[in-house]
Amino acid sequence: MTDTASYPLTWELDSLYPNPAQPEFTAILQDCKSALEALVERVAQLADAGNPEQDAALWADFLTDYQAATAELSGLFAFLECCCAEDAHNKQYQVLMGRLASIRPLRENIETQLQLTLRELSAETIQQFCDQEPRLQEIRFFLEESKRGATLRLPKEQEILASELAVDGLHAWGRLYDRLSGDLKIQLMEKGELVERSPGQVQFDSPQRSIRENNFYAANKAWDTIADSCADALNHLSGTRLTLYKRLPVTDHLDAPLIYNRMQRSTLDTMWSVISERKQKLVRFLEKKAELLGLPRLCWYDLNAPLPLAGAESAELTYDRACELTVNSFAEFSSDLRDFAERSLRERWIEAENRAGKRQGGFCTTLPLKKQSRIFMTFTNSADSMSTLAHELGHAYHSYVLKDAPFVLSDYPMNLAETASTFAEAVLGEQRLKAAKTRDEELQILDGMLGDSVAFMMNIHTRFLFEDRFHQERASGELTPERFSELMLAAQQEAYMNALDDSGWNPSFWISKLHFYISELPFYNFPYTFGYLLSLGIYALADTFEDQSEFADKYRELLIATGCQLTEDAVAGTFGYDLSQAEFWNKSIDIIDRRVDRFLELADQAD
């Protein structure tokens, strides 16, 4: 790429929908609600429409209208999410999000009745419907998946009531956390002045340890002020789910997230088993990093510290430069991914400005009827922020390749969504590694890549262990904030194999990690590790293809398959691996081990 003109730091929302404060937006909300209300009446007719020869067109007409209405609802949620994220203190946006959330039960009502109706149909009958109507054949996987999803449904009237109660119950606790975390201010000392910062503005990757340490304790002090409310939210989120699970044919609290991810328990168990057996090499990396930083052992706030390497690229990285490096790296993999990233950046699909008042974290959201995405993040002039940019662009590309699929086949499980995002990070990382010119530069890049490995194999493992264990305990009653902290500490020590300093843990981590409070999905953790190791292993397969474009095409096939196949089938059908076996996971971790070996080799060389 030769054009080095500045990339916009803020996104464009005006072309998507009218301003939420305008009556036109309210009218769109009402139209969407009316369309869903009409579908609620129509879906009931399907229960009596079980004759494929007579009723196939009725089913197809209904599902065509259902896709249009739910695609609009999805776009409205995405748009308002963007508005709330860029202006976390806007009460009007929060009220509108609550109003939109009140429409959600209509969709869930439709989905419930549809799934319960499909539950009563045999696989042979569903096939006969598809044989009669091409529109149904096209979305056959959705029909089969809806039938499987009925496993998590209560009887009809109970399910509808639960959905309606969730607006002021389950989902309200998630919205409460969003408001609490969005309003939180962290007091920091900067240049002799006491300043207030939003959580997303506080950095833990300063080269000065005193700054990292002060930021860490200042952030935890602020988060601790809302610990009681967060404990309430976490107790009631998990308590609601466990109450529902008692009335469903599930084994335990892991069945639901596995069904949501279209994934077998044997795959999850195998992945964590291989990780637990192979983590020791990452401990050696952490020990060597501590040595390079002049520390006996690392603390939590040292994990993302830059190495003191005079010959490495400056830690300060402008947004323009990060965009250029990302686009150029993507170009080495595929022109399609490169062109998409360039378009996203130029057409202002990305909000990256570092300013007060924004929500913490980052996300990519899709507006299906517009066939566009929007990316939210806070760019902090660091390589870590550049990786976040690549990560979110990977999500957006995933939606892009599915933009012309039927709406019900454009939805993919979280574990495969995280494959696309971490694959994009892998492309960026490998290209940067190949371009490294000095020992220090290579060390710096390897440090970032292995930091990712620590995050996915230790930090995410911490979150999984913590969430698994507090669900087990929550079955016997509510947990105190102190007990949540005890469980978090134990999970960190196990997942990190006690590699950190005795005083360097972060028991309050459960308060600040928003993933625990997402009301729509439990266990928003293991899919990250799954996606990371899957993308790493797949990216390594590029060398087995004589033609790079053939590999890029095969990867695109995988992304498309994520919308219309089970997880294991999508991978086996494109790249031929059985994910319930240890072979693939070991191959992925072999790559990490080689990176650790190279890091240790370079670290022991003279400057």
Radius of gyration, taken over Cα atoms and rounded to an integer in Å: 24 Å
**Low-confidence parts lasting 5 or more residues at pLDDT below 50?**
none
Average pLDDT over all residues: 93
How many helix segments? 24
Provide the spatial order of strands within the biggest beta sheet.
Answer: 3-5-4
| N-to-C CA distance | 33 Å
Helix content: 55-70%
**How many strands, what sense, and barrel or not for the largest sheet?**
3 strands, mixed
How would you name the oligomeric state of the polypeptide chains in this document? single chain
The percent range for strand residues is under 5%
The general outline is: globular
Series of secondary-structure elements, N-terminal to C-terminal = HHHHHHHHEEHHHHHHHEEEHHHHHHHHH
Number of DSSP-assigned strands: 5
Helix/strand/pairing category: mainly alpha
